[in-house]
Amino acid sequence: VDTSPSNFIRNIIDDDLNTGKHQSIQTRFPPEPNGYLHIGHAKSICLNFGIAEDYPNAACNLRFDDTNPLKEDVDYVHAIEKDVSWLGFKWQGEVRYSSNYFEQLYSYAVELIETGKAYVCELNAEQTREYRGSLTSAGKDSPFRDRSVEENLDLFARMRAGEFAEGSMMLRAKIDMASPNMKMRDPVIYRIRFAHHHQTADKWCIYPMYDFTHCISDAIEGITHSLCTLEFEDHRPLYDWVLANISIAAKPRQIEFSRLNLQYTLTSKRKLAALIEENIVTGWDDPRMPTISGMRRRGYPAASLREFSKRIGVTKQENTVELASLEACVREDLEANGPRAMAVLDPIKVIITNYDEAKSEQLVAPCHPKDESMGTRIVPFSRELYIDRADFKEVGNKQYKRLKLNKEVRLRNAYVIRADDFKTDAEGNITEVHCTYDAGTLGKNPEDGRKVKGVIHWVDAKTNKPAEFRIYDRLFLVDNPAAEESIDSALNAQSLTVQKGFVEVSLADAVAEKAYQFEREGYFCADNTDSTAEHLVFNRTVALRATF
Ligand code: ATP
Ligand code: MG
Ligand code: MG
Predict the structure, then answer these.
(1) Phi then psi for 365, rounded to 5 degrees?
(2) Residues 6+ apart with CB under 8 A from 298
(3) Helix, strand, coil percent content, the chain, rounded in steps of 5
(4) First to last CA, the chain
(5) CATH number for the domain including 62?
(6) pLDDT of residue 3
(7) Binding site for ATP: which residues?
(8) What is residue 2's predicted lDDT score, i.e. its pLDDT?
(9) What average pLDDT score do residues 249-253 get?
(10) Residue 547's pLDDT band (cuts 50, 70, 90)
(11) 117 C-alpha to center of ligand 2: Å?
(12) Counting Cβ atoms within 10 Å, is residue 237 exposed (0-12), middle (13-18) or buried (19+)?
């Protein structure tokens, strides 16, 4: 089995199984449905679902952490489900929502009130901030902190009933206004929001806060190990406090790991949303986006993202991963699994003057030079072809192993040709190269022992299909775009360039998202949104070799 390498979290799990603390392992992946998943989420998905796959009797839940109705939408729910499935993972049972537990969460809040551990506070936002104090100074107790249990119960019930305005009241846990951990200074656990919720509609006008919701949801679901990123480290005492102070038996353990930071890449839904709002990209699934949907559209295989997650590992050290290592995973996968095909992105015409005008051959080419199981394809050949503009020069030095005037080159999967003449337009651009072919060189070397070193790709001019090629580059020129004050100055103006050329006819029915190696050009896939039979569009998934 292709299991993941060990890491400190798996070591903890191993211990918990060995000591008998747990008989089975339960994890969860808890996205907030307020945007699309990105490559950072892929790390968390692979970690949580990977544990579920690798341990016996283990499972992973998909839970939407949906306590903030203003920012959430059911479209995001569907996009997230699709992305997790596409990555190749199965969640246990039905999808879950924190909002499934609103009634239970409410009861636990009542329980905290009853035991004197929560109170309704009427400080406004500014006062609350002021009373909270700072890292260097203790906070002050709210004047509402010592309300009676009866009064708190009454006010909380009336908050739920919709009697009070937004912002006028909140429920706070009564912990310690002098705690060195700011999170423990009487955190808000419920607030009033007259907002329609994508799951619970208008049933609620009070919504629980993340820190109150998450730990209880974990406990309700029997989560054993609640894995989250390091910024939640100082939330852990609150996570534990809530569970210790309500009558719930399960005590899941929160463990933090470092988030994925990727060079040249933003990994924050909020910042990615801003790129869409500012029309810097076309949407969440723009192939330049580091979203799972963007990478899928670009042609990244799901397996390459899983491999990447495996390679970066799971630690508590903050670091930034090189974009090259993600691309290496994509390239390695496609080198092995991407069928070969030919496309000419910047075409000039080749006319084979000694080839019969009426003739056409159906040449057979392997789909992969090292993998016969991928089969063969038909590559038509006739008198007129296209080659890439960069593959012909009137004169070229020894290093230039392509087509030169009066010299020979091999057409990939076909014959050896010699350039005899060429034509130019008024500006001197080459428009046509006139060649002769050696009919005895199909699949073999010239009989007289002539050495022909170069090989170039081509497409047949009769049967080819016109295509648009979208060449993508990183969106940002700076290593850490998140640190920039203004994103605009960090943008790569060349993140998308479009070329118009031709593809071999076998690509007419290329399946969207499935990447091919266009020989000598790179890995490309048909665009899942814009490519049609009448107008083929191919995205460059990744270049053949590392470019940075
Ligand atoms: P964002 O800041 O992009 O909105 P988030 O953490 O708020 O991210 P959630 O939807 O809450 O987004 O994330 C779901 C899970 O994915 C959380 O457990 C979170 O810790 C994890 N996660 C988010 N970003 C990363 C990242 N860059 N690396 C690893 N895990 C991440
Ligand atoms: Mg979050
Ligand atoms: Mg967020």
Answers:
(1) -125, 145
(2) 287, 288, 472, 525, 539, 541
(3) 30, 25, 40
(4) 34
(5) 3.40.50.620
(6) 65
(7) 32-34, 38-44, 229, 259-260
(8) 56
(9) 97
(10) confident
(11) 26
(12) middle
How many Å is the Cα radius of gyration of the chain? Answer: 31
- Using CA atoms, how far apart are residues 207 and 294, in angstroms rounded to an integer? 32
Q: Which atom of ligand 1 is nearest to the CA of 270?
A: 4
Q: How many residues does the chain have?
A: 548
Residue list, ligand 1 pocket, CB within 6 Å = 30-32, 40-41, 43-44, 65, 228-229, 259-260, 267-270
Measured from the Cα of 268, ligand 1's closest atom is 3
Last residue of a domain, one of 207, 231, 257: 257
C-beta neighbour count of 340 within 10 angstroms: 19
Q: Which domain holds residue 114?
A: 8-257
Query: Quick check: 309 pLDDT over 90?
Result: yes
Q: Which of 232, 257, 282 is the last residue of a domain?
A: 257
Extract the tokens encoding 464: 């080819």
Q: Catalytic residue positions? A: 32, 259, 269
Note whether residue 403 is domain-resident. yes
Collect all residues with Cβ–Cβ distance below 8 Å to 276 and sequence separation of at least 6. 282, 283, 284, 286
C-alpha distances out from residue 365 to 341, 368, 420, 474, 504, Å: 9, 9, 27, 34, 12
Task: Specify binding-site residues for L-glutamine.
Answer: 65, 210
ipTM confidence score: 0.96
Number of domains in the chain: 2
User: What's the pTM?
Assistant: 0.96
